[in-house]
């Protein structure tokens, strides 16, 4: 039996050991997760550079296109959409220039040849219905192409600055798609179909909900889950033995 005087100190020591063990257990899980979240600066990949350039190029031709729509549009809604897209691209352009400066990456300073042709086509189109259709067709097609590119970089880039830009650009592009579609001029039947999904390879983790070893390591910062469980088990055994000895010494 424990006496009243001896049990209290022993219990306090045991509680302290168990608290330390709990803290150590939490730290074991927290360390790889924190390492995964605090991704270091990494060299730009080809996809990262492509995104930076694509966002910059989009602004270089869609700002003048939007301003043209605000003046030449036949429908009130087209004029409104054009003005709003030009305004939003000015903000997105500021974001991509800021990101490029942080990454010491040189951005293009004029639209590419295709974009220059689209602008020329809009300039030549008659104000009113003809212009409205050209404006919506060209901008809707361009946004449809860049949308999946942004999503791919957002989900896979290792660079924090690029990831933030991709997230911001994704919001802008989705909003622009919605604005263009609100004109009622998008010809959905003429849009390219989405690519077919890749064939399933065995029991996919996404459908079963079970992660394989590589996927599990990726989610916890590259540490093998088996290693973590071995460490936890050893910590529990050591903590239990220490607690038992403390209780024994307090008897």
Automatic annotation (TrEMBL):
Residues spanning the signal sequence: none
Keywords, in A-Z order: Membrane, Transmembrane, Transmembrane helix
Record-annotated membrane-spanning stretches: 226-247
InterPro entries, per the entry: DUF4142
Pfam families hit by this protein: DUF4142 (PF13628)
Domain named DUF4142: residues: 47-178
The name this protein goes by in its record: DUF4142 domain-containing protein
């Amino acid at each position: 039996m424990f006496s009243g005087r001896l049990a209290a100190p022993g219990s306090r020591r045991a509680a302290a050991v168990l608290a330390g063990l709990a803290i150590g257990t939490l730290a074991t899980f927290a360390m790889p997760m924190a390492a995964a979240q605090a991704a270091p600066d990494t060299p730009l990949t080809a996809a990262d550079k492509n995104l930076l350039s694509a966002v910059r190029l989009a602004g270089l031709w869609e700002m003048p296109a939007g301003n043209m729509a605000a003046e030449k549009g036949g429908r009130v809604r087209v004029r409104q959409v054009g003005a709003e897209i030009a305004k939003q691209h000015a903000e997105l352009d500021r974001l991509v220039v800021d990101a490029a400066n942080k990454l010491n990456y040189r951005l293009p300073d004029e639209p590419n040849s295709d974009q220059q042709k689209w602008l020329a086509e809009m300039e030549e189109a008659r104000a009113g219905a003809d212009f409205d259709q050209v404006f919506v067709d060209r901008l809707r097609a361009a946004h449809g192409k860049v949308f999946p590119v942004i999503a791919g970089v957002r989900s896979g880039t290792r660079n924090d600055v690029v990831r933030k830009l991709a997230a911001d650009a994704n919001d802008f592009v989705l909003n622009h798609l919605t604005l263009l579609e609100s004109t009622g001029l998008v010809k959905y039947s003429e849009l390219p179909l989405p690519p077919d999904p890749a064939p399933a390879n065995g029991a996919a983790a996404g459908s079963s909900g079970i992660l394989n070893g590589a996927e599990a390591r990726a989610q916890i910062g590259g540490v093998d889950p088996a290693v973590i469980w071995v460490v936890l088990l050893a910590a529990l055994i050591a903590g239990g033995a220490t607690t038992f000895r403390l209780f024994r010494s307090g008897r």
